[in-house]
Amino acid sequence: MGYLEGLFSLEGRNALVTGGSSGIGKAIARALARAGASVVVVARREAELKAAVDELTEAGCRAAWVSGDLATRAGVRTVAEEAAGVFGEPDILVNSAGINIRPPLSELTDEDWDRTMAVNLEAPFLLGQRFGPRMAERGYGRIIHVTSQQAHRAFVQSGAYGVSKGGLESLARSQAEAWSPYGVTVNTLVPGFVMTPLNERLSSDPVKVAALAERTMVGRNGLAGDFEGAAVFLSSPASAYVTGQALFVDGGLSVH
Ligand SMILES: NC(=O)c1ccc[n+]([C@@H]2O[C@H](COP(=O)([O-])OP(=O)(O)OC[C@H]3O[C@@H](n4cnc5c(N)ncnc54)[C@H](OP(=O)(O)O)[C@@H]3O)[C@@H](O)[C@H]2O)c1
């Protein structure tokens, strides 16, 4: 086996990527598949899922999709079983599915709060409970959560979203503490402002887009593809001694 292959190859590994039909999750699913993993992507809309998987299979990768709603506990459990039934138990779990409802805090309803927590925090917790201990039993696992700047500081209506992402960073540390001794590392990827459908409203305002780019050090906003290398690293044998960490993929936004 070549040097780079030994460090980074995901050959023979199974991956489950939530939110793998769009934006950052889609780019991560593509990266893991191209690095050799068999990838199952999970989201609700079937047309988007199918399109994402078709792209991968046409490129010669092993990929499949499972449609389900991560906003309910029953939905998460069903999706988890279906996904594990495709290629086998995942060795790599990426939680990229997320929502950002963004009402001003004074107008945030109980339903907004519950839904945000369910998709952004509870689904990653439940998927971790389902897959983490089994990864630990097998002696290899990688869990990657996608959080946000708002896990670290409040801005642009952090509301419930920032709270859910702050919780997700803590969840990563709890999971890392529990399972790292058994070969399961758990880390978070922290985006800056990335041009994806999640940010449609903001991305369509060129003045705001330019102002946000200005706040980075690299001088541009993020693209979904910027997450590919970091995701492969955190999924691979190369990151065996990196756990409980938050890796900012943000062009320097957080330190500017
Ligand atoms: N874009 C940014 O600037 C940015 C910044 C910081 C953090 N993030 C985080 O990065 C992650 C990915 O965001 P993105 O920008 O790539 O967003 P995106 O393009 O809107 O993708 C979100 C994905 O999550 C899925 N999803 C949403 N609700 C779901 C549900 N109830 N059940 C199952 N799947 C669901 C969506 O598919 P369906 O709608 O078909 O279900 C889609 O695949 C999110 O966790 C987000 O909070 C993004």
From TrEMBL:
Q: Domain Ketoreductase, which positions?
A: 13-192
Keywords of this protein's UniProt record, alphabetized? Oxidoreductase
**Its Gene Ontology molecular function terms?**
oxidoreductase activity, acting on the CH-OH group of donors, NAD or NADP as acceptor
Q: Which family does it belong to?
A: Belongs to the short-chain dehydrogenases/reductases (SDR) family.
* Superkingdom of the organism of origin: Bacteria
Q: Which Gene3D superfamilies match?
A: NAD(P)-binding Rossmann-like Domain
Is Zinc found in the keyword set? no
SMART domains registered for this protein in UniProt: PKS_KR (SM00822)
Name the chain's protein. Short-chain dehydrogenase/reductase SDR
Q: Which InterPro entries match?
A: KR_dom, NAD(P)-bd_dom_sf, Sc_DH/Rdtase_CS, SDR_fam
Instruction: Write down the PROSITE patterns for this protein, in alphabetical order.
Output: ADH_SHORT
PANTHER family, from UniProt?
3-OXOACYL-[ACYL-CARRIER-PROTEIN] REDUCTASE FABG, SHORT-CHAIN DEHYDROGENASES/REDUCTASES FAMILY MEMBER
Q: Does the keyword Transcription regulation apply?
A: no
